[in-house]
Amino acid sequence: MIGRKLNGTAKTTQKNNQTIFKWSCLIFYGHVLDDRYAADRTNLCRAYLLLVNDVMKLFEYIEPSDDNLNAYSHRTYELLLRASTEFETNSKRILIDNNYTFRGNPNILDYYKINNSSKLSDYSVTINFWRNGPKTFQPFGNWSTGNHSLLWYQAYNAVKHDRQQNFPQCSLEHVLNSVTGLLIVLFSQFSIYAFNPYQEIGMYDGDPAAGYVYVNESIFSLQFPINWNNNEKYDFDWDTLKQQQSPYDTFTF
Fold first, then answer.
1. E strand segments, the chain
2. What DSSP state is assigned to residue 39?
3. Each residue of 15-53: pLDDT tens digit?
4. Alpha carbons 97 and 103: distance in angstroms, whole number
5. Which of 74, 117, 180, 232 is most buried, judged by most C-beta within 10 A?
6. Which is nearest to 126 in space by CA: 210, 183, 188?
7. Are 58 and 78 contacting, i.e. CB atoms less than 8 angstroms apart?
8. DSSP secondary structure of 144-176
């Protein structure tokens, strides 16, 4: 069974030519909750929830509207730095836990490789109460073309190294792409627990067969990839695997 970086492949099986998603299966929840899978799961998800709370506070002052996508301030600067740092933290942990060797300091060329296992480029996140109608973000969409660059991540690096010159780049749009990007990376590891790491039983709404899910407490709804090939899918018996000293396999990036 593959370790912490696969959501789509590790959670589906093929039966009668139909994809059966194991969202309510105890096997699924069991392997995510096991500390051998990711002992830092709760802390990673808590950091995301704090960010979302601060985005909601930001919306008390900046209307979630297309008109304000270029708005920036010291608050958006702070959120962009925090969300992008959490993206880096998650990405490094995924790679390290799968025995990846960095050649120099970790960078976007390393993080880009996670797309091979998790199809991050096929995820999208929607804010349904957007003033102009539901607003959808696809923060890793560029990776589907083979281009490793991400505009919001470039903006993060720009303002981190020279805020005075690049301050306008910490825009609301880049903030929301960084926060939704973080949600996607967390969901790809922990599924519904990304929304609420405190409960052992995850509750959600949506249409899992269509790859659509949301929880009542979140401002985001999420579309995850369901376009896995049969050779990318596998089933597992967690009741048996959990008895092993090392029940998780690694992925070669």
1. 12-15, 18-21, 124-127, 135-137, 205-207, 212-214, 221-223
2. T
3. 233 333 334 333 356 888 899 999 999 999 999 999 999
4. 16
5. 180
6. 183
7. no
8. GGT----HHHHHHHHHHH-HHHHGGGSBHHHHH
**∠ CA 177-181-186 to the nearest 5 degrees?**
155
**Residue 86 carries which side chain, given as an amino acid letter?**
E
Q: Which long-range contacts (CB under 8 A, 24 or more apart) does 141-146 make?
A: 143/112, 143/115
pTM of the predicted model as reported, rounded to 2 decimal places: 0.89
The 10s digit of each residue's pLDDT in 95-113 is 999 999 999 999 999 999 9
How far is it, in rounded angstroms, from Cα 75 to Cα 77?
Answer: 5
Length of the chain in terms of residues written = 253
The phi and psi torsions of 135 (rounded to 5 degrees) equal -110, 125
Integer CA distances (angstroms), 188 to 66, 70, 209, 225, in order: 28, 29, 16, 10
User: What does DSSP say about strands 124-127 and 221-223: parallel, antiparallel, or unpaired?
Assistant: antiparallel
- Is residue 109 within a helix (H) or strand (E), and if so which, with residue range? helix 108-111
Quote the longest CA-to-CA distance of the chain.
Answer: 59
**Spatial separation of the C-alpha atoms in residues 129 and 135, rounded to whole Å:** 8
Q: What distances in angstroms separate CA 141 from CA 19, 68, 70, one per listed residue?
A: 24, 22, 20
Cα 193 from chain centre: 11
- Of the candidates 7, 213, 32, 193, the one whose C-alpha atom is nearest the C-alpha of residue 117 is 7
CA–CA gap between residue 72 and residue 189 (Å, rounded): 31
**Residue the block writes with tokens 């960095």:** 102
